[in-house]
Specification:
With 142 residues, the protein is an all-alpha fold. It has one domain. The protein is built from four helices and no strands.
Length: 142
């Protein structure tokens, strides 16, 4: 009896794994991609707005330092503004990379098996490369 239960468990596990990496219907993929694109646009817009707001504050700090006619403060505020701009650009680049990744991953769902796995691995690698490039640009600008 224990052997029968073991076979039953193995069969159930095999069926569960067989459901992995199955291609979704074209209609479902299309809907998922559209949803991912909408979310992506929202996320990128939010990152852009936050970067713009941070940069406006940094610019105000530079103007205030100029009004006080303190060149050391102006230099510090300008450096801070440059770092703020670099950080804002980084956040926007990461938001775009994550958005692109989300969309690419949804498109991978149209594939099945090894092709789906390969597609997702490429999307993951592209995301990591984009993040590293954004970090390099930020760190080089700061």
């Amino acid at each position: 009896m224990n052997r029968s239960i073991s076979y039953l468990i193995l069969a159930a596990a095999g069926l569960a794994l067989a459901g992995c990496n199955q291609a979704e219907s074209p209609r479902q993929v299309q809907q998922d991609v559209a949803d991912a694109q909408a979310q992506a646009q929202q996320d990128v817009t939010e990152a852009q707005n936050e970067a713009r707001d941070s940069m406006a504050e940094a610019h105000e700090d530079v103007i205030d330092a100029q009004r006080n006619d303190d060149m050391d403060s102006v230099a510090d505020a300008a450096r801070d503004a440059s770092e703020t701009a670099a950080e804002g650009d980084f956040k926007v680049a990461v938001a775009r990379a994550e958005a692109t990744h989300r969309i690419a991953t949804e498109k991978c769902e149209a594939l099945q098996g090894a092709a789906q796995d390969d597609c997702k691995e490429r999307a993951d690698a592209e995301l990591e490369n984009a993040k590293r490039a954004a970090e390099a640009r930020r760190d080089g600008a700061g």
